């Protein structure tokens, strides 16, 4: 079942022969069925290397592997201080909390109601690197339904953000500047003569 339920069964026996004890001809059984939904989380950031100022595509997914519906599924993504959240877009039926697009925030998106087994929800976001270093982006999924396998509910991706190289310090540019200065020096000497 997709929800917590009490199942009941009843069986009655009868015969053409007279039963001296009719009180034991019926048996009743009741049991409670508990729901559980194994949510599986995945996180990707593309590309995983760049420079400060670069934009990165972030995708977080939550898949319900069942056996029951997951009630009020949720995806949380920690956007660390080294990145700034620019846009976010949940898959159909989802809503993301209205928050300032800032570095060092948690993006939370929810899908109210039942998420059937086999269903995947996702959040697509664009983030921008705002500081240099190894930036750890983490996220998780959860729901109001018990999850029998909690160790597949979270993931972390590390993004490397470097500095944009200064073209003037590259060997080709150093050679070009040297030739330019030699040419200007030669021109200055000619004009004096």
Under CATH, the homologous superfamily of the domain at 37-162 reads: ntegrin, alpha v. Chain A, domain 4
Low-confidence stretches: none
End-to-end CA span = 99 Å
What structural category do the secondary elements indicate? mainly beta
Computed over alpha carbons, the radius of gyration is 32 Å
SS element count, helices: 1
Number of strands: 11
CATH architecture assignment name of the domain at 37-162 = Sandwich
Sheet of most strands = 9 strands, mixed
CATH level-3 fold name of the domain at 37-162: Immunoglobulin-like
Would you write up a description of this structure?
Strands 3, 4, 5, 6, 7, 8, 9, 10 and 11 form a 9-stranded mixed β-sheet that branches. β7 and β8 (103-115) form a beta hairpin. The protein is mainly beta. It is 11% helix and 56% strand. It has a domain at 37-162: ntegrin, alpha v. Chain A, domain 4 (Immunoglobulin-like).
Short key terms for the protein model shown above:
193 residues; mainly beta; Immunoglobulin-like; two-stranded antiparallel sheet; 1 helix; 11 strands; 56% strand; rod-shaped
Brief digest:
This protein has 193 residues and is mainly β. It has 1 helix and 11 strands. It is rod-shaped and about 140 Å long.
Sequence-ordered SSE layout with sheet pairings:
Blueprint: E1 5-12, E2 26-33, E3 37-46, E4 49-51, E5 55-67, E6 70-90, E7 94-96, E8 103-115, E9 120-129, E10 133-142, E11 154-162, H1 171-192
Parallel strand pairs: 4-11
Antiparallel strand pairs: 1-2, 3-5, 5-9, 6-8, 6-9, 6-10, 7-8, 10-11
